[in-house]
Write a structure and sequence with these properties.
The chain has 21 helices and 2 strands. It is mainly alpha-helical. It has 2 domains: about 280 residues, Growth Hormone, Chain: A; about 190 residues, Up-down Bundle (Growth Hormone, Chain: A). The chain has a two-stranded antiparallel sheet with strand order 1-2. Helix 3 packs parallel to helix 9 and helix 6 runs antiparallel to helix 20. The protein is globular. InterPro entries: MFS_dom (IPR020846), MFS_sugar_transport-like (IPR005828), MFS_trans_sf (IPR036259). This is Major facilitator superfamily (MFS) profile domain-containing protein. One of its GO terms (cellular component) is membrane.
């Protein structure tokens, strides 16, 4: 009886040693890692230059509607009625409204988005999210067909131009259309920058790179209230968060192409130049990089398949493995879109101060993101996601407690936001590893698109409170459980080389 635990301990130790050896073996045969390094000065420089600005800006642009169209009280000041005029009451013949808010000017007061025009404020954010959805599909295709660099440059320049036009909008419809294209650019900057970072990082450091790429978004969310607090006007706020996008101009001169993508397209000389530059940055030998690129291409069993360089979304359904992976990935992203909203909506109710609420939502995401890197490294992607989904399910279920138990709801919401953020950080990395180079961005784009659909459906789930107060928390709890079950059909990808072709 006493020998079993000891035997199991030995078995576990043996399995861990074998897993470690397998991971080291993968690293050894990854010629790209041997040539340019796993995670050194070049990778760190690109992460700081590309991932940080693009993700911080994405947070400002995507979430800025909270301060551009905040909750606003109003009262009619010009009407033919002689009776006393009630605040927050709509009158058919009202010619002018007075607005009461913490801000000097909002899009609500600028274009009278109250009463019969109140729906227009929500439409602005809906079209912005629709832009993110369209951008996920468009930039996913462009990045896989024409390269990570060109797709990221288009997205960055589009965001720069539209974010500087936005504060000078002369009408509601001009503002809303610009917001749509800003949403489109957000999808491109977030997806393409992440894929580029993961493709230049070795298997042993992907967890660290994933965390570093995820952290800027909540940091941007925490910084955003400072802009709003000091600028206090929708156009000054939009200009304030738009000017930093000028950093994108240096990408035209400094942004490299992914050497993995170049090799997958047969552009070995171009790949060797990028690899040589990376090697010099990392104080490694930069000679014979063309031979290394040729060796990597030769090792790929499908490198002679001419169709691989022109992959389409249909290639995601081409083999049984990819069909299972894309269905599973889209399901995970859809469920995360709903779960993340389920936790965040309650965090927004923890304070009547919008500045504090937005900052809190950013703070609560940090622990989950950092924990995702640790767990992904120790136990793998699948187990990490299953743990996050299960804890998120319990947290969302606890949101059904009465409002009197404020502390329970606050803690549950905070844990739920942290777990959902950690799951998002992990699923970004997991999706990257599930698909080959020629379809990686398209797979990420398709999954992200489905996630947006989940986020857009989530408010309707939250609206089930009109039927029963316990229904929304129950729904938000069941969805993560389904996500955990979905992971059972997907493979583990920890420590694996990023493959280049479909077959």
């Amino acid at each position: 009886m006493e020998t079993k635990p000891e035997a199991n301990g030995k078995m576990d130790t043996k399995e861990n040693m074998e897993a470690k050896k397998e991971e080291e073996k993968v690293e050894e045969v990854d010629k790209m890692v041997q040539a340019i390094g796993t995670f050194e000065r070049w990778q760190i420089m690109l992460c700081v230059m590309v991932a940080f600005p693009s993700r911080i800006s994405a947070a400002w642009q995507q979430l800025g509607i909270v301060f551009v169209a905040p909750a606003t009280s109003f009262q009619c000041t010009e009407t033919n009625l002689t009776d006393s005029i009630q605040p927050a009451t709509c009158y058919r013949d009202c010619a002018k409204y007075e607005y009461f808010t913490e801000f000097e000017n909002t899009i609500i007061s600028e274009w009278d988005l109250v009463c019969e025009r109140a729906w227009m404020a929500n439409l602005t954010q809906t079209l912005c999210m629709a832009g993110v959805l369209i951008g996920s599909i468009f930039f996913g295709f462009v990045a896989d067909r024409f390269g990570r660099r060109i797709a990221l440059l288009i997205a960055c320049i589009l965001q720069l131009v539209t974010s500087l036009i936005e504060p000078f909008s002369i009408s509601y419809w001009m503002f809303t259309i610009v917001r749509f294209f800003i949403g489109t650019s957000i999808a491109g900057t977030m997806l393409c920058s992440y894929i580029l970072m993961m493709e230049i990082t070795g298997p042993k450091r992907r967890e660290l790179m994933s965390v570093l790429c995820a952290l800027p978004f909540p940091i941007g969310q925490m910084l955003m209230p400072l802009f709003s607090y000091y600028l206090r006007s929708w156009n000054r706020f939009c200009l304030g968060v738009g000017i930093p996008n000028l950093i994108y101009l240096i990408y035209i001169f400094l942004l490299p192409e992914s050497p993995k993508w170049l090799i997958s397209q047969g552009r070995l000389e171009d790949a060797s130049k990028v690899m040589a530059s990376a090697a010099r940055w990392n104080n490694r030998p930069s000679d014979n990089m063309l031979d290394v690129a040729k060796a990597i291409a030769y090792e790929n069993a499908n490198s002679k398949d001419g169709q691989q360089g022109k992959a389409t979304y249909m290639d995601l359904l081409r083999t049984k493995v990819l069909r299972v992976n894309i269905i599973g990935s889209c399901s995970l992203w859809f469920m995360l879109g709903i779960s993340f909203y389920g936790s965040n909506q309650y965090i927004g109710q923890t304070s009547s101060n919008a500045f504090v609420s937005v900052a809190l939502a950013g703070v609560f995401q940090l622990p989950g993101i950092m924990l995702s890197g640790i767990l992904s490294k120790k136990v793998g992607r699948r187990i990490t996601l299953i743990c996050f989904f299960c804890v998120c399910a319990v947290s969302n279920a606890l949101l059904a407690v009465p409002e009197d138990l404020f502390i329970v709801r606050l803690v549950a919401g905070a844990v739920g936001v942290g777990c959902a953020s950690g799951a998002f950080a992990t699923v970004y990395m997991y999706t990257t590893e599930l698909f080959p180079t020629v379809t990686r961005n398209m797979a990420m784009g398709a999954s992200s698109t489905i996630s947006r659909v989940g986020s857009m459906l989530a408010p309707y789930v939250a609206g089930l409170t009109t039927v029963a107060l316990w229904l929304p928390p129950a729904a938000f709890a069941i969805v993560p459980v389904l996500g955990a079950l979905t992971l059972l059909i997907l493979p583990e990808t920890k420590g694996k080389i990023l493959r280049d072709h479909v077959a």
